[in-house]
Amino acid sequence: MAKVYFASARVKKWKYDDSMPGKLERLLKEFDLSKYLSPRDWVAVKTHFGSEGAHRIVRPVFLRKVVDAILSTGAKPFVTDTVRIKGLDYLEVANQNGLNHLSVGAPVILADGLYGNDNIMVAAGDILGEIAVASVIYDVPAMVVCSHVKGHIQAGYAGAIKNIAMGGVSARHRHCGWKCGRGGMHAVGEGQIVWDEEKCTLCLQCEEICPLDCIKFEDEKFTYSDENCWRCGRCTRVCPEGGISMAGDDTAFMSSLAEASKAVLSTFKEKKVIYINFLTEIQPECDCMPAAEVPVIQDIGIMISDDLVSIEQASIDMLLTSKPLPASAAEDEKINAGDDVLSKLHNKPYMLQIDESVRLGLGEKEYELIHLK
């Protein structure tokens, strides 16, 4: 049975050791990274840089504690993510959100290059076939996956699986485009964006939010660049009238997350990937959106494990026992105590990504929860 180490967000004593950064330090010592990392290993600290306006990411103070713990083993860490908007813009967003060498104590880099097409094709599964894994993640010998637990418009629940699957894969491949990258998961191979002219009010929010400037309105008609579009789905999310849609299949999408996770993890030797889930500032949406909402669930704490499925199951179990917060999207949707908050918000069968990960041998649902003393 896998072990999941947990530190509560509650502070019962007014001393540093009982603060969240202090507890993370203690968790990392108890977990003992030296069992997984070798001196002089290069270690990817995989996180999400957020977006301009979406500031509720894993905070720099926490990433600094992870970096310091890795350095104490003699390994060499760097903080990384894959390109989600234009590469130089994304590095600037990271800096605006407080992620830089000075704050986290390690280089902050893009795992798939400035153009988001520096990747290597890896066998994935029946749905995806092959997927474009970011070259830095492919090559690096060890990884610590720092995931911000939250909701997600497509995944319903977003934690370590989503972070690895969508964050370890490039948006597009140099030759086969979005279908071999993250876009292939978003669109599950279909990917045609459909505009409903009758619903459109020409608010132009879709054009404004497109990270690649693919969308244009000429003579009040919607057009987009099929070749350049990464199928991120932001345009469909922000349309207030539901005038833009993109075909998808929830079951296939959840399975594709597991397939992509397996592809990414296949590039590492056994026990060279560690997972840290931050159940803090739990958002209704992904950190890739251009704004942060108020949390829908109160801060719960931090978890560490070497088992992908176990840490996800433990995180979900805690979310299921947590009350929705007032004055949040949960209250807007009239979600009550005892309800599955993220499921009610997005109506997505998010447990399928967990079940499929088990089927693919990525971990086990049963776990032992070890509380930090």
List the helices and strands and how they pair.
Elements: E1 2-8, H1 20-31, E2 42-46, H2 60-71, E3 76-81, H3 87-96, H4 101-104, E4 108-110, E5 119-125, E6 129-134, H5 135-139, E7 142-148, E8 150-152, E9 156-158, H6 160-167, H7 182-187, E10 193-195, H8 205-209, E11 215-218, E12 221-224, H9 234-238, E13 244-246, H10 250-265, E14 273-279, E15 301-305, H11 308-320, H12 329-332, H13 341-346, H14 351-359, E16 367-371
Describe this structure in words.
- The protein has 373 residues and is an alpha/beta fold.
- The chain has helices at 20-31, 60-71, 87-96, 101-104, 135-139, 160-167, 182-187, 205-209, 234-238, 250-265, 308-320, 329-332, 341-346, 351-359, and strands at residues 2-8, 42-46, 76-81, 108-110, 119-125, 129-134, 142-148, 150-152, 156-158, 193-195, 215-218, 221-224, 244-246, 273-279, 301-305, 367-371.
- It has an 8-stranded mixed β-sheet with strand order 4-3-2-7-14-15-1-16, sandwiched between helices. Strands 5-6 form a two-stranded antiparallel ribbon. It has a two-stranded antiparallel ribbon with strand order 8-9.
- β8 (150-152) and β9 (156-158) form a beta hairpin.
- The longest helix has 16 residues, at 250-265.
- The radius of gyration is 20 Å and the shape is globular.
